[in-house]
Amino acid sequence: MGMCWDALSALGALTAMWLLLRAVWGTGCAVYVYLLPSVRRDARWLRAHGAWAVVTGATDGIGKAYAQELAKRGLNIVLISRNLHKLEQEAKEIERLHGVLTRVMQTDFTGGLEIYGAIEEGLKGLEIGVLVNNVGMVYSKTLGKLLDLENPAKSLSDTVNCNMMSVVQMTRIILPQMVSRRRGLILNLSSVAGNQPHPLFAVYAATKAFVRNFSLAVAAEYFSEGVTVQTVSPCLVSTNINNHPKTGLLVKSPKDWAEQAVNTLGLSSHISGCLSHHVQEGALDAAALPPTSFLS
After folding, report:
1. How many whole angstroms separate alpha carbon 43 and alpha carbon 251?
2. 66 tagged catalytic
3. How large is the average pLDDT for residues 74-86?
4. How confident is the model at residue 259 (pLDDT cuts 50, 70, 90)?
5. Out of 34, 66, 116, 204, which one is annotated catalytic?
6. Which among 17, 234, 251, 256 is least buried, having the fewest CB atoms inside 10 angstroms?
7. Domain limits at 13?
8. Tens digits of per-residue pLDDT, 140-153?
């Protein structure tokens, strides 16, 4: 009996030590990535990857904030979205505020493979250093079963095309030139919602899990060829996709969130985007709570 208790005590001590080391490592990583200005890459480092950044879903929310933040750091911006009026307004605003060049491409990412030929043609000749795969959609802003959707066949197809195919095809188009130059940054927007299955919001969460797994795999494949692929899994950012909740300690505005997220480039391959979201994601993982209300 004494030997059994000794074994259990040793196991408990090892478990406690493992949890302590994990907590120390996580805290150290958070301090390094989010709190040490001295380790952040400067604008020259960012521009050295290429003169242009391409941002999908660039006229609202996180995509718009990324475009503004990258332009502020001296990159020319290709804005891709479906609303031409918003695209033209945003392009003019970026040029006025930051003095960089812009291009706009009107694209509806709910389309299939046929939409990508025009994108590929429009990007020819540009030295693209940063790709932000941000575009995404929800098929419903309320929870519900899969077959409760209005016109489920189209709704589900649109969601898969927009949230998943766009990431794969945009990567396929831009990755070759990054590999040939042996430098480039690809940012793929996942979500904390993709960390586990979400009944009543099944497809959105599944598409974000796909983005995370695809992104991590491609990062491993092309790291040795000079291309950095960053997986971005925010918690709640106040955007149109989640009806603009009030910002505060837990909920970030796109502008504040993107500024912190861009500061992490070159420091971490998988981020929450800001310190607040890093802490929230760690707490959710530790408690194994399903974050069904977090849409990013």
Report:
1. 27
2. no
3. 98
4. very high
5. 204
6. 17
7. 1-39
8. 777 888 888 888 89
| In-domain check, residue 296 | no
pTM of model > 0.70 = yes
pLDDT at 126: 98
Say yes or no to pLDDT of 267 above 60: yes
Instruction: Supply angle C-alpha 71, 226, 104, rounded to 5.
Output: 30
User: Same domain, yes or no, for 1 and 65?
Assistant: no
d(CA 263, CA 41): 7
- 296 vs 89, which has greater pLDDT? 89
Give the tokens for residue 267.
């420091």
Q: What is the CATH number of the domain that holds 61?
A: 3.40.50.720
pLDDT at 293 over 50: no
User: Do 111 and 124 belong to one domain?
Assistant: yes
Same structural domain, 242 and 104: yes
Q: Based on the domain organization, do 1 and 68 belong to the same domain?
A: no
Read off the pLDDT band of 21 (50, 70, 90).
confident
